[in-house]
Design a protein that fits this description.
homodimer; DNA-binding; alpha+beta; 229 residues
Chain lengths: 229, 229
DNA sequence: TAGATACTGTTGGTTTTCCAACGAAGGGAG
DNA sequence: CTCCCTTCGTTGGAAAACCAACAGTATCTA
């Protein structure tokens, strides 16, 4: 059950930090998030915010808690496609283009506070129009960054075995860090979820890979032992 | 070894059909593809066109043949992330934004004819500037459509078992067709590649699913037997 | 310091997938 | 029609992943 809530100081910060709003004057942004088409609400865990097939006409910013993007097949079996933690903005893609039908359920995974912006109304707002060019540009950057992230995950997920998934993921992390030694953000469970494998099996595979001399690791620090060719 | 080639009548058609150029006057488009920064070349199969880590400064349109996007890990093991068949445009994402580093190899999988547009030069062309607003808008649409496709594939790939992958994929196809009976575009091998499973194992699983009363199929026509709940 | 609470690593039995090989069912082409 | 070639389905042994249960380690708090 949703309850109307109010913006707190820390929330404003999260809004400003959204890539979509980068470069927008804070005063102008502040005026928008005080309009009536912007709402903040608290939801219990396991609350469905938007349902598959429905028209998506809201931007959604998670202020606290965790929200999941859930794919559901015709036999009503659901699975988490993406996690939206605090500070994550979702739905910007739907603000543009003809097909605004949502392909997933959006559902709270914990008690959460969520800000929503009705962008049909937003687009009509004359205050918005002043910052629209910046946001349009940001939206393009945002969409493109997203395609890169999604394509990377596809590369990782499409590998046949757990070992190959790990090697693909770790290789990309190493490239990003420009170093064969680097830290990763995810803990074992989150990494297993990201790669869609069992945590325990993944741990075992990491052990083997270390024994086989491919990698070294301790906690979240990994070193890749590239073979000369 | 790349050979310079020339545009044929059928090629022009493929260019016009690119979503990126939708709504652009054909005459204006024709003038651009005759500029020196647009090139057509034939390549033997297994030719690397662009390499991981290199700066991507070209749009790439496959005119004939097949080109693969290949992820390669630090141990030089490669795997196909995406297939680019005839008519496919690749690289538009890289024309915008700061990080233009390519994360994959682009490599021909057959003898292919490929058109490339150097977009650094393209962006400077005064003829291009006249159509730039349309292309910018198209690019945004293109990027967004791409995020939807990629997210869908992630949903399918992230399923734990072959059966679940198939159910997720078929459910989405059914939704698109707005019908529980529908045809799919992919043959068995392509579907198995898309879902990253073995073809034979997938065939066996389809059989079982039919025996279990979940689906019916014949060749590429499937019917989903949704359970009432 | 002791206890509670994550997070990580290990192990063994069960299930699923891979893999290679083969048989069956369709199309063309000669 | 027959032959060739491609696609689709089946099968059985080998390999890998799942799963549950448990042991080790670090951190935090009382």
């Amino acid at each position: 059950m949703a309850n109307v809530a109010h913006l707190q100081e820390a929330d404003i910060e999260k809004i400003y930090l959204c890539p979509l709003f980068k470069g927008v004057e804070t005063a102008k942004l502040a005026s928008i998030i005080k309009k009536p088409y912007t709402k903040v609400a608290t939801h219990e865990d396991d609350t469905v915010l938007f349902k598959t097939g429905q028209k998506m006409n809201q931007l959604l910013l998670v202020l606290d808690g965790e929200v999941g993007v859930i794919g559901t097949n015709l036999w009503n079996k659901g699975s988490i496609v993406e996690l939206l933690g605090a500070g994550t903005l979702y739905g910007a893609e739907f603000a543009v283009g003809a097909d605004k039908k949502l392909g997933y359920d959006i559902c709270t995974l914990e008690n959460s506070r969520v800000l929503t912006i009705d962008y049909v109304k937003l687009l009509c707002d004359s205050d918005y129009r002043k910052i629209a060019p910046i946001i349009s540009e940001n939206l393009l950057q945002f969409a493109i960054a997203r395609t890169h992230n999604l394509q990377a995950r596809i590369y990782h997920l499409a590998q046949g075995s757990t070992r190959e998934k790990l090697l693909a993921y770790l290789s990309d992390q190493s490239r990003q860090a420009k170093n064969t030694t680097f830290q990763i953000d995810l803990d074992r469970q989150d990494l297993a979820d990201y790669l869609s494998v069992e945590r325990s099996a993944m741990c075992a595979e990491l052990s083997k890979m270390q024994k086989d001399g491919l990698i070294n690791y301790h906690k979240n620090e990994f070193t890749l032992k590239k073979i000369k060719k």
